[in-house]
Write a structure and sequence with these properties.
The complex is a heterodimer of chains A (554) and B (282). Chain A has 554 residues and is mainly alpha-helical. Chain A has a two-stranded antiparallel sheet. A two-stranded antiparallel ribbon of chain A has the order 2-3. In chain A, a hairpin with a 5-residue loop joins strand 7 and strand 8. In chain A, helix 13 crosses helix 14. The longest helix of chain A is centred in the last third of the chain and has 40 residues. Chain A is globular, with a radius of gyration of 30 Å. In chain B, helix 6 packs antiparallel against helix 7. Chain B has twelve helices and two strands, in the order αααααααααββααα. With 282 residues, chain B is mainly α. In chain B, strands 1-2 form a two-stranded antiparallel sheet. In chain B, a hairpin with a 5-residue loop joins strand 1 and strand 2. Among the domains of chain B are: 85 residues, Cytochrome c-like domain (Cytochrome Bc1 Complex, Chain D, domain 2, Orthogonal Bundle); 78 residues, Orthogonal Bundle (Cytochrome Bc1 Complex, Chain D, domain 2), CATH 1.10.760.10. The chains are: A mainly alpha (554), B mainly alpha (282). At the A-B interface, helix 6, helix 11, helix 16 and helix 17 of A face helix 8, helix 9, strand 1, strand 2 and helix 11 of B.
């Protein structure tokens, strides 16, 4: 249009003109500018959720490739592929096609393994992300919704993973599915009905692999994708939280713009995650279905475990006493119900409702955009560590037969270690964490009040030895610092406040000449070395202001 | 037979005149009676024993003690030196120490001694395998001794892998994998007992283990698994063992526990390193 073409700032480059054409039609310039200028705070722990996001992308891509070759059918066939030790064995078409994927499809085994590793990584990074959110209080108002969505994502991912684990119909899948069938049956009143609905009859039937397949490739991924989208949109809308620090308040966000810095880093991380999944998929064998053999209900292997994210339920089942509840009228609640349905229910309900619980307990209903350091909220941190220790003991107990075998411990001893540990360890962890938090808090205050220990010992004229402390700010008549704790990390070493030279750059190896750095810093008169010769210190530990000879500047 | 002959000089002493001589003669006749009784008893016993050995059908076939071969004799010596404390003088076993070896056969001796499980170092939940104490020759002697005196299953002959691999796999998963895991890596049993790994087992060790059911293992006699089926299982175990892992590092072939460790230590470990690195680039 003529009017726009003559307006000031008319684009002259080809890209600019093309962008103008697009904006003329879609009117997205304003939105795009706002989005690209969106600021994200920078901290390594904020990247944990991104790892989960990128491994999900790996899962979608590799999973799509697998669907081209996987046959989700329980039709019985006789294997006649290239893996000799199974030739002539009867198996389901699902298992047969998984073998073909592994041995006869180009890149099939690599894709299968990458998919499986990415799945393990997906849930593992979600757990790490969840822990970061929990321990820094990022779930507080106004971000409770995203916490609920996040926990739902975690639960759905576990179900998604289980469905994928059960689909190949190998001996391990079938064993897991048999246990799932038993868990469903153990639910009081509705168990049998639910089982009939899920399996279309008694275990194992002829439907379950097909049903798992559609849940695994369509139903759950679609819900996951939608929830991830909402999760991210809410994040963008509410803005990312940040740690307290200089210039950071409840009302601003300090960090990098989405474009180019943040986008560059994010892309870099995407490639790292891809690389890790691909490297594991190519170098480390996972779920060798051909070794497990086809599923046969009469067969089982020792050390048949679920993937790690379900292993805590295996552990709770191994530890829980065999308490059947026999009710009058020939009703029984089997022992399996308590550790698998009840405990899992309690764990996930508490996890989901934690923001509500904390709000009720603390009465804190204010909006928070600044994160908390774990040490500053000792009760929450200790509760979290307590829950984590409980979970880890269940997780280890899920593989307690392998631990027993590899470390020559009696399996019975492992069970009792787990049983006693799961009750005794969490309270101990609570107390320990609480004390550690208080200790760290005290140390922060001590440094703020007395300054950083310099390691310089000085002898006063009357013979007393003192360690010289470097105050972090103005001091009162007694030499005590007057800075208040602001929730940000307190520097505790002299080089953190620039007393030593800045570190030579380079993560793996120096990328600059150390002697050059030294010269440069001498020139700036920075660092302790610059004034080392004539250090003058007061008895209160404060370096005197004057009298420090300067290196002659070039 | 006694070589002394008291009857020969008896008449010369009978008509001694003096009381001393009479008394001596009385004593002598008493002695003579006694000697005669002993001789008669000995004769009776020897006759009975000889008759028994002639008529007893069990003793008839293997022949008498004189025909014990050199190997059996050497085996007996080894047995009396190293095994007798727990398994008893006549292979009958000692309560609370060791089981009877009657009927276990040379197959059991081969497995137990060749894998170093026997002789036992101490009584514990289960005898661990260790370097064999006896040489192959000594093991053969022990086998010969136990086989000769206790009887039982003997060593198989021929190619022990002469079977169908796929069928062996099915049989292995059905009969063995519940304790030894799906590739024979072994696994824990209750109370400190365990199913050992089959990674270092030879064909003959696996065969004799199935045949004799050592430690906590059930006996898979020829009625449960025919010799052909045993050979198929061995063929499968050895094939799987020698087969490389097409997917990369096998991480112990122990299933999801190893895989979970890898993702947390290697996967999350590398990525943590990655995000620290990116963080330091701020």
């Amino acid at each position: 249009m003529a009017a726009t073409a003559t307006a000031p700032g008319t684009p002259t480059t080809k890209i600019g003109k093309a962008a103008l054409e697009v904006d003329d039609r879609l009117v997205v310039a304003g939105w795009t500018r706002r989005t690209l200028n969106k600021v994200f705070p920078d901290h390594w722990s904020f990247l944990l959720g991104e790892i989960a996001l990128y491994s999900f992308i790996v899962l979608l891509l590799s999973g799509t490739y697998l669907t081209f070759f996987f046959d989700a059918s329980m039709r019985e066939v006789v294997y006649n592929g290239s893996y000799a030790p199974l030739r002539g064995v009867e198996m389901s078409a699902a298992y047969d096609s998984t073998l073909d994927l592994s041995f006869d499809v180009r890149g099939g085994l690599f894709m299968r393994q990458m998919h499986h590793w990415a799945a393990l990584l997906f849930v593992a990074s979600m757990v790490c992300h969840l822990l970061r959110i929990f321990f820094t209080g990022a779930f507080r108002r106004p971000r409770e919704t995203n916490w609920f969505i996040g926990v739902t994502l975690l639960i759905l991912s576990i179900l998604e993973g289980f469905a994928g684990y059960s689909m190949p119909d190998d001996l391990l899948s079938g064993t897991g599915l048999r246990i799932m069938s038993a868990i469903i049956l153990s639910i009081p009143v509705v168990g049998t009905w639910v089982h009939w609905a899920v399996f279309g009859g008694d275990y194992v039937g002829e439907l379950i692999v097909g049903r798992l397949y559609i849940a695994h490739v369509l139903l759950i991924p679609a819900i996951l994708l939608a929830l991830i989208a909402v999760h991210l949109l809410i994040l963008v809308k509410q803005k990312h939280t940040q740690f307290p620090g200089p210039g950071r308040t409840e009302h601003n966000v300090v960090g990098n713009r989405l474009f180019p810095t943040f986008a560059g880093k994010a892309t870099g991380l995407l490639f790292i995650v891809f690389g890790v999944c691909a490297a594991l998929g190519g170098l480390v064998q996972i779920n060798p279905v051909w070794l497990w053999g086809p599923y046969n209900p009469a067969q089982v292997s020792s050390a048949s475990q679920p993937d790690w994210y379900v292993m805590f339920l295996d552990g709770s089942s191994r530890l829980f006493p065999a308490w059947d509840l026999n009710l009058p009228g020939d009703y029984t609640i089997p022992a399996l119900f308590w550790p698998t349905v009840l405990i899992a229910g309690i764990i996930f309900t508490l996890l989901l409702m934690y923001p509500v619980i904390e709000r009720k307990l603390t009465g804190d209903t204010a909006s928070h955009h600044l994160l908390q350091r774990p040490r500053d909220v000792p009760v929450r941190t200790s509760l979290g560590m307590m829950a984590l220790s409980f979970y880890v003991i269940l997780l280890i107990s899920g593989g307690n037969d392998v631990v027993a075998d590899k470390f020559n411990i009696s399996l019975n001893a492992m069970t009792w270690i787990g049983r006693i540990g799961v009750i005794v360890v969490p309270p101990l962890v609570y107390v320990l964490t609480y004390r550690i938090c208080l200790g760290l808090q005290m140390h922060d205050r001590e440094v703020l009040e007395h300054g950083i220990e310099t390691g310089v010992i000085r002898r006063l004229p009357h013979g007393e030895f003192i360690e010289v402390h470097q105050p972090l700010g103005p001091v009162d008549d007694h030499g005590h610092g007057q800075l208040a704790y602001g929730g940000a990390p307190v520097p505790k070493k002299m080089n953190q406040i620039g007393a030593a030279r800045r570190a030579v750059r380079g993560f793996f190896s120096p990328i600059e000449e150390p002697s050059q750095v030294e010269l440069e810093q001498r020139g700036e008169g920075r660092g302790l070395a610059a004034g080392e010769a004539g250090r003058e210190l007061t008895s209160s530990g404060r370096p005197a202001d004057g009298g420090r000879p300067q290196e002659p500047r070039d | 037979m006694s070589t002394t002959n008291p009857q020969s000089d008896a008449p010369s002493d009978v008509d001694g005149a003096t009381p001393v001589a009479r008394a001596r003669a009385r004593r002598r006749s008493k002695q003579r009676r006694r000697l005669g009784n002993v001789a008669a008893l000995m004769a009776g016993l020897i006759l009975t024993g000889a008759l028994y050995s002639v008529f007893s059908p069990a003793q008839a076939a293997p022949g008498d003690e004189q025909s014990e071969s050199a190997a059996e004799a050497a085996g007996r010596e080894l047995y009396e030196r190293s095994c007798i404390t727990c398994h008893g003088e006549n292979l009958e076993g000692v309560p609370n120490r060791g089981p009877s070896l009657i009927g276990v056969g040379e197959a059991a001796v081969y497995f137990q001694v060749h894998t170093g499980r026997m002789p036992l170092v101490r009584q514990e939940a289960q005898a661990p395998d260790k370097p064999a104490v006896f040489s192959d020759e000594e093991i053969d002697q022990l086998m010969a001794y136990v086989q000769a005196n206790g009887g039982g299953p003997t060593l198989p002959s021929g190619d022990l892998r002469d079977g169908d691999v796929a069928e062996g796999g099915e049989l292995f998963r059905l009969n063995c994998s519940s304790c030894h895991n799906f590739v024979g890596e072994g696994g824990a049993l209750s109370g400190g007992k365990y199913a050992p790994s089959l990674q270092d087992s030879t064909d003959l060790e696996i065969y004799t283990a199935m045949l004799t059911g050592p430690e906590n293992m059930p006996v898979f006699g020829d009625n449960q698994l025919t010799p052909e089926e045993k050979r198929s299982i061995i063929s499968y175990v050895q094939t799987i063992k020698e087969q490389s892992d097409p997917g990369g590092a096998g991480v112990g072939r122990i299933g999801p526990v190893g895989e979970g460790l890898v993702i947390w230590i290697v996967g999350i470990g590398i990525l943590m390193f990655g995000i620290f690195w990116m963080g330091s680039k701020a």
